[in-house]
Backbone:
């Protein structure tokens, strides 16, 4: 049983489940919801690197998501560019804008950074909403092509799109995993811990923060580009603050600063909110209190709570075995003392 | 080797240190004495680049360093071992030490060698190397902090109150290790309230009061100085 729950096995089972999922359901609606959830997860991973691991809460994330989506949409519809070329360019555009915005916004810290990026996010939304001639304003952009063929593989069915997004999701998780378990990951955690301390061991905090900011926007852009070609219609509301807070909620519920948090939180919340659709906006009356309780009692979300629980259990076990050892030692001493007496 | 010339540092409008002059020669142990808030830590932070002086300059091996960022100064060879044993509590002892070698991150062989040396100085750390640093005792955390500073292979190591909150026996061990590190060729700058222990191993000292250096001299001079004895040694 313990073996069954080993991390590696759990991951293998989950990936296998994700791969066979379309065959199990055969329900296009469910596949659609799942694909959307995967797209959100990619964006949440980007947010997690920055807010979770480095300790910089960016509230401009939906803005970068929208930049990725609009870049792809404009390049494919207005510039008539080849899909995959536009896709790569969209990612580059998002990252370059991320670099420029990061250069300025990372001069602020903590709450000021959050407030600053909140404004940046809103400005991105406003630009998209008001720049009618380029972005189509409130009407949005329609007729975005679905992903171009790669050789014989076409992406015009929900199932094929599902696999495409799943591929990028696994790519994202792999990259984030590699980053978190490398020296860079520890560097980001060190910066979250204390920037002064990080500097006194020789970490160039400015450069590292900028790098992680750009990586974070890259994943937001990747999610945005996938979203645009999956939904095939985008409006300015995808860059609105509510999307940022949705992403943040997924992250906090799943577990901020944990590797599995984005997957757990996003899938759980997307699924629950689908189930509660009949309540319309009154759903929030259920979400609000649950979120509050979660933040109070499990500040590191479901995943973090589980990690703490496991650590505690391990500690208990260790104490128990230490205790047993001590008792054995004491009883051994007692018997030897007794035998000495007898002798 | 390291010269601090007339530096003054402000926090807002509050002047934390005024007109401080310190000279450290290669191979010395120099101690800064003084009560809490006297300006020892501010002086350290200025040398390590975390605080910027509004007056004066810091020269290290003939090069001005007071305009450099803190991480550049680590590369130059001055490493601060912060007060309060600031570690990365969730990381293991091993990872903490490894982070200390950040500036040498490409030189894996050297990291291994320095780490072995740290484990030689503090054998207990080798046993605990997989434990999270936050779970260690105060003395052991201090060892990790010193070990982490050593991992950067500093030319000058600054230790901010390494004895604070430790049992007397551990303090003694700590000072022995500091002396050993110094003998191996690292110049030491030490901030202490425990004047008795510090002056025993130091070559010279500076006494801080309210952001000024009030007395300076060799450790024998300070040891026999009446006002220093009264204030810091208590006999």
Residues:
């Amino acid at each position: 049983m313990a073996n069954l729950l080993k991390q590696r096995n759990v991951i293998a089972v989950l990936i296998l489940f994700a791969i066979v999922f379309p065959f199990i359901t055969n329900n296009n609606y469910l596949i659609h919801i799942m694909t959307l959830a995967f797209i959100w997860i990619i964006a949440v991973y980007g947010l997690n690197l920055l807010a979770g691991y480095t300790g910089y809460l960016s509230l401009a994330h939906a803005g970068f998501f929208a930049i990725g989506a609009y870049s792809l949409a404009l390049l494919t519809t207005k510039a008539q560019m080849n899909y995959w070329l536009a896709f790569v360019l969209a990612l580059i555009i998002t990252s370059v804008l991320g670099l420029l915005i990061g250069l300025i916004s990372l001069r602020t810290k903590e709450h000021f950074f959050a407030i600053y990026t909140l404004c940046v996010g809103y400005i991105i939304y406003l630009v998209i909403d008001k720049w009618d001639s380029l972005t189509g304003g409130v009407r949005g952009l329609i007729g975005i092509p679905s992903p171009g063929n790669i050789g014989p593989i076409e992406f015009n069915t929900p199932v094929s799109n599902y696999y495409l997004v799943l591929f990028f999701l696994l790519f994202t998780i792999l990259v984030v995993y590699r980053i978190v378990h490398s020296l860079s990951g520890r560097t980001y955690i060190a910066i979250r811990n204390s920037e002064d301390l990080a500097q006194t061991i020789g970490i160039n905090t400015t450069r590292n923060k900028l790098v992680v900011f750009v990586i974070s926007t890259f994943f937001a852009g990747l999610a945005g580009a996938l979203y645009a070609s999956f939904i095939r219609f985008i409006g300015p509301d995808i860059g609105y603050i509510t999307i940022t807070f949705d992403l943040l909620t997924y992250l906090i519920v799943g577990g901020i600063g944990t590797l599995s948090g984005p997957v757990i939180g996003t899938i759980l919340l997307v699924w629950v909110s689908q189930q509660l659709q009949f309540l319309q906006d009154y759903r929030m009356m259920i979400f609000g209190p649950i979120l509050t309780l979660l933040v109070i009692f499990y500040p590191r979300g479901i995943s973090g709570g589980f990690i703490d629980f496991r650590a505690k259990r391990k500690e208990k076990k260790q104490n128990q075995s230490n205790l047993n050892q001590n008792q054995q030692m004491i009883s051994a001493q007692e018997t030897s003392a007794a035998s000495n007496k007898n002798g | 080797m390291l010269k601090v010339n007339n530096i003054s540092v402000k926090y807002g409008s509050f002047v934390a240190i005024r007109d401080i002059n310190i000279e450290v020669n290669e191979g010395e142990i120099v101690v800064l004495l003084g009560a809490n808030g006297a300006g020892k830590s501010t002086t350290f932070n200025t040398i390590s680049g975390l605080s910027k002086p509004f007056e004066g300059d810091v020269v290290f091996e003939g090069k001005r360093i007071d305009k450099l960022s803190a991480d550049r100064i680590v590369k130059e060879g001055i490493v601060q071992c912060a007060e309060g044993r600031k570690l990365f509590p969730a990381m293991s002892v091993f990872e903490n030490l490894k982070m200390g070698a950040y500036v040498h991150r490409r030189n894996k062989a050297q990291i291994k060698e320095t780490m072995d040396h740290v484990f030689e100085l503090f054998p207990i750390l080798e046993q605990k190397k997989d434990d999270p640093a936050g779970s260690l005792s105060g003395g052991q955390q201090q060892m990790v902090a010193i070990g982490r500073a050593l991992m950067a292979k500093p030319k000058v190591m600054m230790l901010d109150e390494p004895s604070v909150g430790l049992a007397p026996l551990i303090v003694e061990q700590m000072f022995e290790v500091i002396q050993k590190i110094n003998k191996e060729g690292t110049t030491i700058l030490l901030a202490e309230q425990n004047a008795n222990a510090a002056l025993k191993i130091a070559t010279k000292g500076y006494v801080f009061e309210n952001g000024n250096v009030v007395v300076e001299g060799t450790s024998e001079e300070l040891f026999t100085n009446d006002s220093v004895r009264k204030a810091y040694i208590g006999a």
In short: The two ends of chain B are 34 Å apart (CA to CA). Residues 168-183 of chain B form the longest helix (16 residues). The CA atoms of residues 87 and 145 of chain B lie 7 Å apart. Chain B has a mean pLDDT of 88.
